[in-house]
Amino acid sequence: MIVLEVALPIPLNKTFYYLPLENINSQSFLGKRIKVPFANRILIGYVIDLKDINLEDTSKLKLKKIVDVVDDVSLITQETIMLSNYIANNYVCSFGEALASAVPISMKVPKRMLKSKNLRKKDVKEEHVLNSWQANAVSLINSSLEKNINSCFLIHGVTASGKTEVYIKSIEKVLEIGKSAIMLIPEISLTTQFVNIMAQRFGEILGVWHSNISNTVKYQLFLKAQNAEIKIMIGARSAIFAPFKNLGLIIVDEEHEHTYKQEQKPSYDAREVAEWRANYNNGVVIFGSATPSLETYKDALENKITLIEMKERIGNKSFPELKIVPLNNRFKSSLFISETVQAISNTIAKKEQAMIFLNRRGYSSTIMCRKCGNVYQCSKCSISMVFHKNPDILRCHYCGETKSLPVTCPTCKSKDIMVFGTGTQKVEDELKKLFPTAKIFRLDGDTATSKKNYEIAYNGIKNLEFDMLIGTQMIAKGFDFPKVSLVCIVDADTSLYLPGFKSVEKTFQLITQVSGRSGRGDIKGSVIVQTNHGSHYAIEYAKKNDYISFYNTEIEQRRKLNYPPYCYIAKISIKNKSEKKVDEDSQKLFYLFKDLNEKYKLDLTFLGPVPAYIVKVNNFFRKHIIIKGKKDNILNLAKSIEDIKQSPGTSVITEIMPSELI
Questions:
Q1: For the whole model, what pTM was predicted?
Q2: Chain centroid, CA 300 distance in Å
Q3: pLDDT reported for residue 362
Q4: Could you tell me where the beta strands, DSSP code E, fall in 185-274?
């Protein structure tokens, strides 16, 4: 008797057997999503194999029949299964959970195949002459593509060095040899710009995949990639799973960005998945960045991947002049130093554009009672709520709870309540007062809730409709606007002293990347960095645009403290609505880990258990245990968590090589 072997997206690392629907060829179920009964609910699962079992065994198995078939065609290939096994083994999740990343459960089969808007290729003959740095990069990459050699390259190219044109030439080559390409970008905000560039060159064979497209469109894109109706997929992290059957090239732009690391289970790293897929398909991976992650650059120096340097800006344009100004008015009314205000004024007077960067959205950090010092906190999370204007509300950026602005202090009933701190909304308000006739647009997590606002920001700056663009990290990279001659970083210290081993690296990267938005055209660019820590080496080296010196200094710090890339690391997060149970379970896990470490001589180091940086989120108390050591030893230990019984309501989540430890 033939039964279906089904993987379910649940945290149980096993498969299940179901009876197929009657009068349907069992073979036709292979590789499709199906609906099945499981523990008093209906789940969507994946048919990964067929099993022929002895009829006598069926009574013992008590097999249930599937409820329905979701797909008309098979979505799962041998590569999908092997990739899902790789993710399950390397990121401590079940095979079914891994499979759900590669073939999303949420994809919705349209009742009728909708007509998609084809991207039209422009009939414009553009001659893109490469400089020597670009030509060298293209030559090395294309040689590997032509020879069908699995290769990995790091393009360390300064901002505005022309990496995008190298990517395009590599895609042209991979199409020429009859293969497909994936291009990953770190932010949805960059989609409009990159799609415009790519559509001009490649037109209707280009697909765009990100979280803002509907589940129906995702299904259509999935099938188009599988059937080779499109040959290029551009998108954020999950675009790495585009089901091309003849994949030849994967590009990871701004490879240093933490957004390539999935934080939720399964906590896969799209960069590592890219390397796996390129190896499986005998293809090429290109990592590109002006500020590569320390891990990737170290691999390049050790010849684990091929380093390609691009040290000059296109057209030999000079780097913007970066000026550091002390934030000596931090506690005064204005957010801007007088020099900054004058620089913005001069820029607008010359009909040029400015980008204002602050890595914190909202109006101000929070509100505080002047009388008793009480800071208004979220009732569900141990973090202050953020004040937002229009409408005037307090919002928690962790659980999403909103409250109206209090009239009196909830602790002492005083009406003497002050707003303090800085957010992008407050920056916008102050700039509107300073420059009432200036046209200003703000792009952050609050305004960028739709694709439309990304396009308004991009087209508005490109077409000179705005004088200023204010934003958070999403404006710090990729954007290429020739009229932007001034970049202002309101507070460079925001990320510098966060309790994480990557804080200094992220600060250097942010300053360098956002500075790189200035002076990309024919106008000389300038950058103003407001900071209280101008002598810190991250800021000093960013001022000099000196990645190598920064790398040498920071990598030595990592070596001394034994942090990546000198070790592997895992974060074990324990959470429960009961603070007592979190304490008990985290202690129990910690001592069990130490016993296993000693018993099997794993040579691991443990930190914790310690309260998370935000102790309570959405009514769940959280503690962390950090494990450092060799990869295989950490994975073996982390997998043992499945066998440990926790208190009711406790969940334990393992994140391998997390981007944050807080």
A1: 0.90
A2: 22
A3: 41
A4: 206-209, 232-235, 247-253
